[in-house]
Design a protein that fits this description.
Strands 2, 3, 4, 5, 6, 7, 9, 10, 11, 12, 13, 14 and 15 form a 13-stranded mixed sheet that branches. Helices cover 15% and strands 29% of the residues. It is globular and about 45 Å long. It is α+β, with helices and mostly antiparallel strands. Strand 6 and strand 7 form a beta hairpin. The chain has a single domain, classed as Carbonic Anhydrase II (Roll), CATH 3.10.200.10.
Length: 271
């Protein structure tokens, strides 16, 4: 069984605003103004000026009530979710066409992000351009109720405004060679802001096993728009204890709790 979810079309202008922050939204103020010229860091006016957080009165339980533009946060197709799929993995036509490109470390105000436009993800022939990847600690998605220490989201956008997000879990283990040069500038938020661009290829991030959980969902932060094709990889990658500590020292507990599955189906597919 591989049910193809139908996604509502959205205006490209809105989609661009969403994709460039995807599951991470920037804070307003000096950081935002300083990075205004970077296309992958543009956020909607509402997301920039309306405060939200992961705890307290502006935390996930209240996001939908903070502003009418966040009403989707109380929707029926929200992310993240607990991933459970009993059926055999099926083949689906997904192609990774990543290229080496310049990546820029960026502090969103809610997490660590790397802005990069380096290739595409093709799903059933439809192209989704890579825009950025960012980290959540601990993981947002869970598998059979179990979370991982970290999760990265690779955010892609199509020309018509649909989003495809590829999620990869991390567990503690061997040092991650791909992340090593990025982590050199992860000592503090100040060193992140001063970091030089790095050449990288997102293909080097992918695990060997391309089996994924896929389902229709949403952004995991306000405005929680339900326009995302989620593909969360089954096989986790590793970070060393030192790498994990460096990440959580900057941002920790920046994960939205799992949301109800409702009437959606989770498919397990081989890419």
């Amino acid at each position: 069984m591989n049910t193809r979810p139908q996604f509502r079309p959205v205006l490209w202008i809105l989609a661009l605003a969403l994709v460039l922050t995807a599951c991470q939204t920037e804070t307003a103020g000096d950081e935002e103004a300083a990075e205004a010229d970077a296309p992958t860091e543009t956020a909607s006016v509402e997301s920039e000026t309306i405060a939200w957080d992961y705890t307290g009165e502006t935390g996930p339980a209240n996001w939908a009530e903070l502003n009418e533009t966040y009403e989707a946060c109380a929707g029926s197709r929200q992310s993240p979710i607990d991933l459970v799929a009993d059926d055999e993995a099926q083949d689906v036509n997904v192609e990774f066409d990543y290229t080496e490109a310049e990546g820029t470390l960026f502090d969103t105000g809610h997490g660590v992000q790397v802005n990069i436009e380096g290739g595409t993800l093709r799903i059933d022939g439809k192209a989704f351009a890579l825009k950025q990847f960012h980290f959540h600690t601990p993981s947002e998605h869970t598998v059979d109720g179990t979370s991982y220490p970290a999760e990265v989201h690779l955010v892609h956008a199509s020309d018509d405004g649909e989003l495809a997000v590829l999620g990869i879990f991390y567990e503690e283990g061997e040092a991650n060679d791909f992340l090593a040069p990025v982590w050199e500038d992860l000592e503090s938020r100040a060193t992140m802001a001063a970091a030089d661009p790095l050449m990288m290829n997102a293909a080097d991030m992918l695990p060997a096993d391309r089996t994924t959980y896929t389902y229709p969902g949403s952004l995991t932060t306000p405005p929680c728009s339900e326009i995302v094709r989620w593909h969360v990889m089954q096989e986790p990658l590793t970070m060393s204890a030192e790498q994990m500590e460096a990440l959580t020292a900057i941002y920790d507990d920046n994960n939205r709790p799992v949301q109800p599955l409702n009437d959606r189906e989770i498919d397990r597919v081989t890419l």
